[in-house]
């Protein structure tokens, strides 16, 4: 199960809408071992493609260094599909390197008129095997 704050959920959807019809991608980092995504990090799709995404290698290295300093890990790795359903492609499965991460797929395929719904689904991808999981969107905690 992925538990994610409304605010972060909405930020991912907004990023996907903004980059449509290209795929959008990014990470939500969180404290190591917490399984809690807390820090939204939108990334540049270096491929600028409607059918493929690729993290910019320089940005990705910088992000990993930054997470290391903060004792964080990538809790959520997200990207959008702009013409197909929110399900990992064969390429996505091949690129999934983080067995502890929640792979979030957003689909903006119904979004052509800027009003359609956006699918938001989450998966575990371990050893090439895809398992969909429940997504719980939670109101931000009051402090
Ligand atoms: Zn994909």
Automatic annotation (TrEMBL):
Question: Which keywords are on file for this protein?
Answer: Hydrolase, Metal-binding, Metalloprotease, Protease, Zinc
Q: Known InterPro entries for this protein?
A: JAB_dom_prok (IPR028090), JAMM/MPN+_dom (IPR000555), MPN (IPR037518), VirAsm_ModProt (IPR051929)
Q: Which residues form the MPN domain?
A: 2-129
Q: What GO terms describe the biological role, i.e. biological process, of this protein?
A: proteolysis
GO MF annotation terms: metalloexopeptidase activity; zinc ion binding
Q: Name one Pfam family in it.
A: Prok-JAB
Source domain of life = Bacteria
Q: Does the keyword Hydrolase apply?
A: yes
Q: Which PANTHER family does UniProt cross-reference here? A: CYSO-CYSTEINE PEPTIDASE
Name of the protein this chain belongs to: M67 family peptidase
Which species is the source of this protein?
Nocardioides iriomotensis
Task: Supply the source organism's classification.
Answer: Bacteria, Bacillati, Actinomycetota, Actinomycetes, Propionibacteriales
